[in-house]
Design goal:
The protein is of the alpha+beta class and 645 residues long. The chain has 24 helices and 24 strands. Among the domains are: 51 residues; 137 residues, no CATH class; 102 residues, Chitinase A, domain 3; 104 residues, Chitinase A, domain 3 (Roll). The strands form seven sheets. Strands 5, 17, 18, 21, 22 and 23 form a six-stranded antiparallel sheet that branches. Strands 6, 13, 14, 15 and 16 form a five-stranded antiparallel sheet that branches. It has a four-stranded antiparallel sheet with strand order 9-8-11-10. 20% of the residues are buried.
């Protein structure tokens, strides 16, 4: 018998054993009669235990809420093991239940397709995969005691874990079959490299709508007419207001202290994954960026600049100040080039090789695919495994978090029943030394600040009717949410939004004038040489971009404007003018291509191997994504959104 609920399985087996032992007693006959009545009433195939509605049905496969909860827990555990104390921050803003359900659906569809293709996972392959898992190894070898401990800590039976592992391996086999069909020719890779690394220089004339706003004064009749034709633009969204209690695990477990045995068990289970640390360094860097298409002269200039900065740092100049002034790594420049702690395998190899050779205070220059780096190592941590005493604060915090989540779930579930029976939220909150929070009416896409990172709470608020109450799990906390009011989406009367309508009409009319002027100017340009004189004749300044990548979507001086880059890149002559005015917001632009520089053959040859690998990986990822989406498109999928919430 296959059973997901271990306690339920045990009681069922016990019941069946007793029934066989006393097969002819009157008591058993009565029980059997009642069971027959149940099966007849609910229908054969439904059964007493099938009254629990599935959360989703995927091509006939039922997904229960229990399975979803287990998937959510696994995602949390994986994040905890990978990110440690930063796990909660990494999971913020993610709808975990929706994400977990999507993962289960994808896995179910892929496994079905793998079986249809005739793929299977042998017992030998399953044993090898489990034996090679780092979590089950001690001193480089599989350890059965560690295997039992980890599964016990995760609440899994060996059969459940092995079935899950077999499913994952089957999905991996299917992915390999799909991805191995993707190949890229040398010509394709070379063409794509050229497109991504071609450099463009643009000139542009901006015709701003603001130039015409002062001459536009719409009448009351024009405003009313515009509003009548564009009422949907001014529709007010649906709004709701709620009250809620947040069951903060940290608050509820503030008095919890784990036992020594609990600490020891946690340490034994997680020692290899959480408390064994590789060698790490903390470093700063100053990046002098180089494009893949850089010429020899550009490379030499970048190298000389990096060495000059290194010399200044070695003479005693403040490294952080030099980084803020010269580094072209925007992610770290304002932090003085600080990269924080990292271990091998986290950064590009040339950088790591240079950094791990240095002692604290040591500096050097290294070349990576990004350019030249001036590196200074601040601190070094040798590889080590924390002792249980060193790990104790983190273990206590983790166990306190587990206990806090358990208490929060328990309190929220208990209080939901009480709230549904009529107990006021304020009384329930007071019982736990918590408070009831209230919001004013808000639209779904603009929740109050305190709920801005709580998408599940917000979506639940708009899924319920006034007076309804529900428990929501979000970012490790639990919320008891009650909807107070709901205002439907409405189109307001003109008097209520007249100022907004006037502004929108004025902007629309001004933008139309800007477009007309841009189109008229374009007609006056008979050759690229006319671009500058036509701009001057209309008292409009010329803008000029720095050299930009064709793969970019940003035009310096304008902002995000992919249409302009695409249109300029498509021109066959240089210099050349794009043959249409392009709108960006309410402003209009004329675009001139000044220069086009393809990547050199040397740049291609230097980058070829890594680029082909990267491009192949991208194509395979896209192919796999399309494959899974096609499986979803063809599948019969039903989701109970009430349970999902």
């Amino acid at each position: 018998m296959h059973c997901r609920r271990k306690n339920l399985c045990y009681h069922l087996l016990t019941m069946l054993s007793l029934m066989r032992k006393h097969a002819y007693s009157w008591t058993v006959r009565v029980v059997l009669f009642l069971l027959v009545v149940v099966f007849v009433f609910w229908g054969i195939g439904s059964g007493l235990f099938s009254r629990i509605r599935p959360l989703a049905i995927v091509n006939g496969h039922k997904i229960l809420a229990l399975e979803l909860n287990q998937e959510v827990d696994q995602i949390r555990r994986a994040a905890q093991e990978k990110y440690g104390a930063n796990a909660a921050a990494m999971l913020k803003g993610i709808d975990l239940r929706q994400y977990a359900l999507s993962q289960i659906i994808d896995r179910t569809l892929v496994e079905d397709e793998a079986r249809r293709l005739g793929l299977r996972v042998s017992d030998a392959r399953l044993r090898r995969a489990i034996a090679q898992a780092p979590a089950f190894q001690v001193n480089g070898s599989f350890d059965f005691a560690a295997y039992q401990r980890v599964l016990r800590a995760s609440g899994l039976l060996p059969a459940e874990f092995e079935a899950s592992t077999r499913s994952s391996l089957l999905a991996d086999m299917a992915r390999q079959v799909i991805e191995q069909a993707v190949v890229i020719s040398d010509a394709e890779a070379r063409h794509e490299f050229r497109l991504r690394n071609e450099r463009l220089e643009l000139s542009y004339i901006e015709v701003p709508y603001a130039r015409f706003l002062g001459e536009i004064h719409p009448s009351a009749a024009e405003i009313a007419d515009f509003y009548g034709k564009n009422q949907e633009r001014f529709r007010l969204p649906e709004r709701t207001s709620i009250k809620y209690i947040r069951y903060d695990p940290e608050t509820l477990a503030s008095g919890f202290t784990p036992t020594d045995r609990q600490v020891q068990t946690y340490y034994a289970d997680k020692r290899e994954t959480l408390f064994r640390h590789p060698e790490q360094v903390r470093a700063r860097h100053i990046l002098i960026r180089l494009e893949a298409s850089a010429t020899t002269a550009q490379k030499e200039a970048a190298k000389a600049q990096a060495r000059e900065i290194l010399a200044r740092a070695e003479r005693g100049e403040d490294f952080a100040a030099l980084a803020r002034r010269y580094s072209q790594d925007e992610a770290t420049r304002q932090q003085g080039g600080d990269l924080g702690w990292f271990s091998r395998g986290q950064l590009v190899k040339p950088f790591e090789e240079a950094a791990f050779k240095l002692n604290p205070g040591g500096m050097t220059v290294a070349l990576s695919p990004f350019g030249y780096h001036v590196i200074r190592v601040d601190e070094v941590r040798p590889a080590a495994t924390e002792t249980i005493d060193q790990a104790r604060p983190a273990i206590v915090a983790a166990l306190r978090g587990q206990e806090g989540r358990r208490l929060a779930r328990q309190a929220a579930d208990s209080d939901l029943s009480a709230a549904l029976s009529g107990i006021r939220l304020a009384a329930l909150a007071q019982k736990h030394a918590l408070s009831v929070e209230s919001t004013g009416p808000f639209p779904q896409d603009a929740p109050p600040k305190e709920l801005a990172r709580r998408p599940e709470v917000v979506s639940t608020a708009f899924a319920l009717s006034p007076g309804q109450t529900r428990v929501v799990e979000e970012a490790g906390s639990y919320y008891l949410v009650r909807v107070v009011t709901r205002a439907p989406s409405t189109i307001p009367p003109l008097a209520q939004v007249e100022d907004a309508v006037r502004d929108e009409l004025s902007r629309t009319l001004a933008a139309s004038k800007a477009q007309n002027l841009a189109a008229r100017m374009l007609k006056e340009m008979h050759s690229p040489a006319d671009f500058e004189p036509v701009a001057a004749a209309n008292n409009l300044p010329l803008g000029k971009s720095t050299e930009l990548s064709r793969a970019s979507d940003l035009v310096p001086g304008i902002g995000k404007f992919p249409e302009a880059i695409e249109a300029a890149a498509a021109l066959t002559t240089v210099p050349g003018i794009v043959n249409r005015a392009l709108g960006n917001g309410s402003d209009w632009y004329l675009i001139k291509l000044l220069s086009r520089r393809p990547p050199s053959e040397q740049a291609w040859l230097a980058a070829r191997s890594d680029f082909e690998d990267q491009l192949l990986e991208e194509r395979r990822q896209r192919t796999w994504t399309r494959f899974v989406e096609e499986l979803k498109r063809r599948a019969q999928i039903e989701i109970d959104t009430n349970q999902l919430g």
